[in-house]
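Hey all, sorry for the wall of text incoming. These are the two entities for the joint prediction.
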Amino acid sequence: MYAFTVNGQVVTAVKKQTLLRFLRDELHLTSVKDGCSQGACGACTVIIDGKTCKACVPTTDRLEGKNILTVEGLSEWESEVFTYAYGEAGAVQCGFCIPGMVMCTKALLDVNPDPTEAEIKYAIRNNYCRCTGYVKIIAAVKLAAKILREGVIPAKSEDDWKVGSRVHRLDVEEKVLGFGKYPDDFYMDGMCYGSALRSKYPRARVISIDASAAKALPGVIAVLTAEDIPGENKIGHLKHDQYTLIPVGGLTHYLGDAVALVAAEDMETVEKAKKLIKVEYEVLPAVHSIEEAKAMDAPIVFDEEESNVQAHKHVSRGNAKEAIKNAKHVITQHFETPWTEHAFLEPECAVAYIDEDGDVRIISTDQDAYCTFHECSLMLGTDKVKAENALVGGGFGGKEDMTVQHHAALLAYRTGRPVKVRLTRAESLLIHPKRHHFVMDFTMGCDENGKILGVKAKVASDTGAFASLGGPVLERACTHAAGPYAYENFEIEGTAYYTNNPPAGAFRGFGVTQTCFATETLLNMMADEIGITPWEIRYRNAIRPGGVLPNGQIVDESTGLAETLEAVKEEYDAAMAAGKLVGLACAMKNAGVGVGIPDWGRAKLIVEEDQKLHIYAGASCIGQGLGTVLVQMVVSNTDLRRDDIVYERSNTWIAPDSGTTSGSRQTMITGEAVRRACEKLMEAKKDGKTLADLAGQEFYGEYLAKTDPLGADVPNPVSHVAYGYATQVCILDPKSRKIDTMIAAHDVGKAVNPLSCEGQIEGGVVMSLGFALTERYPIDENCKPIDKFGALGLFRAHEIPKIEAIVIDKPGLNVACGAIGIGEITSIPTAPAVTDAYYRLDGERRFTLPISGTPYERKGS
Amino acid sequence: MMAVKKKFPYRAAVVACNGDCPASAGFRCSYGCVGCGNCAAVCKFGAVSLNANGVAEVDEERCIACGMCVKVCPQQVIRIHECANSIVVKCSNQDKGKDAREVCQTSCIGCGICERTCTAEAVKVVDNCAKISEENCLSCGMCAVKCPRGVIADLRGILT
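and here's what came out:
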């Protein structure tokens, strides 16, 4: 028995366990988040005797007499101050890191009421945030300090909730005070725990599975193998090549393939039982790389396939070969970009149970509840399945696939018990699809004025152990490799290969992050060769309204690349004139999936018994702030006030399917569906009816973002309904050789919430500073990736440069109040801009990411 | 006593010796503090003193990281660290495990548990003694909690 104080109450811990497990499992203080249990992420930060401490580190036996504080123990005044400050500053996105950040804020301000920016950064530097880039969290701490000193909470700076207003996001309070629930925060009566036994080898045949000893272990409820799957074993986001469980006789594809599932009364028993399962393997040679995958005598990753080619794309318009042949300036170069881990703060978790209708209900953290529904239905062989989103602690593309949902569903289906399946951080690092490693060969030809005449390229990606979104990522990498420029001759061939590495799939930028690095670097080299600035070469080639992109699409009035260039011009010129080291790059990114795929936005507005309008859209908020966007759209398109409106998280039984949170699409596609539903509501309200008069009524809106398929036989195909454009500038400090400032100008159409827009930009830029400079995802000779969260090389708060986010509000699009999604493009031009700046510093061109020879390079490991 | 305004990020001296036994004891390890008192004598700020065992200790509040004590230490067990990095290795013993164990209750035996535990890959055993990279350390203290020898300390006094 160990006695200590938690939030003012004396508590006794009976067993020795980590403080994190005690606070969550025994006291259900779920503001204390389990992001890694490795001491890295900081999401479980609490205050012990006035000092911050990660709760996953100390065990209860060491805490005798100590005084512990969690967010739940803040005073009412502190709660109000932190909620206001974090909301006003726009510091909250997915929210998973926030309670830990709040604890850091309090611990700092208790001893230092007026901290400097450097002191604030130090106070939060051992806590990771993957969404915000820390900028607005730092601002929130500063603001909280001011309010605590002055004793008065001011009015919100903007509160009219119309489109264009910098309102506090609607989920600030539940995330700051930690009462909002992510799946792991659900503790249900009779709930048991599940986990998968993973393959011991990346490529092996399963000869036999003996689960008898595991089943006999007291506390074990079920051990399931492939035979227990009632429906299809193979599922997948698009292509069904992802095994729920590898059957006896089947081949394993990577170390994350599940062989058996265990459910038991507690996690300790689950882990014991997993060790008791005897699996006999025939170990086979593995495919480690693109090179190995395409070798003539390569082992074939899938029994079902004839080669390791997962996808092949060929995009061609005009005659690139001829254009390059006739060009005055030609540059050819090889490029490589690495694997990247999403490192969202919340590891994958799902809770499944049998609900009152006898359906398997799945509470999940994903990017599309309907995806979870479809894939789990397929696997269970029944549509008696419901899926709903809890809060989602970040996604960035990494939560589009099934990781835990299908396993939780199967265990609940077979045991009849509520089951929680949660990945450890090490599992998360192994299992969800990553950003593709790309190898690329590019040739660009320009005339004497720097006008691009043609680009020809060949790229290959390692899509790992199953398809996930490998095909579409490759396709987007290819279509966008041309860049946001007006020229006619473009040809690219791309191939994605299966290997026995972890799977690769969607990741913010969706393949464009990779090919943009190549195109933009070539353009910078070309500018030097011709003798004009990187800014000038882009301004000369920039696509403008009415212009034709290399894919043949005629772009509309919303096209704002030139405006993003103009927005940075003054600072760019000033920095150049001052002899500073400046790098620059541009990007374009589609909003909406496009290329002929039916891209539906759907929403239902229901006036419920509380006489409020509830927004139901089967569209996941993964932290970007979709709920706030939709509420702002309703306020702008109706006569309702904010307080009349309730945003409901995505589910599959009331909310209509509005597609995956992917392709920067929700703001625009679901936003337009909501706007259309608003028209119907206002029609019904025409005769002066109030919401009370409309109780029980539903207003449905849908929008199809119609596009032409790739290679459509039309002169000017519409590949995407909208594109966002960006220019980013990197300015180095020659003394420290570190980045002094990143300027990021983004054309977003109409900014629904400029505060959130800035947050996306800052977060995207910092994420890609990691991509450019520090992040690593090494995979060893056994196809085993890194398992330590703290060694991924993610940027920490004290390492970020000054980030200047410029939101360019350019109208022109006639849907969704003119808004264009911004989620992905923020991360795309960063790496080539940074790389170019370092070239200006030391004269060394770099073609492989992350780049070397910078002060950011990791020392000592 | 001099008073100096400290510059952020604050730095201070740290003694890489636990000092659990008398500095004068004959069986003592040859790498640790010998209690000569040079450090305390040279410090103009009263930040270094000898504890009950005669082993040097630093008061971080007073220390300004001038480095004088580092220079005068004959054993080279004092170094400068960033105060924000409160997790520090309090041992300098470079002998192999068995020998290191014999001379001190709280010596680093180079077992490597810290290295394997560290999520940030910030801890490495070099010459049979744990070393923490301040740049990579996330100050979680997992190494301090897992160290079977009590070699790694949390200077804030929370974890150790």
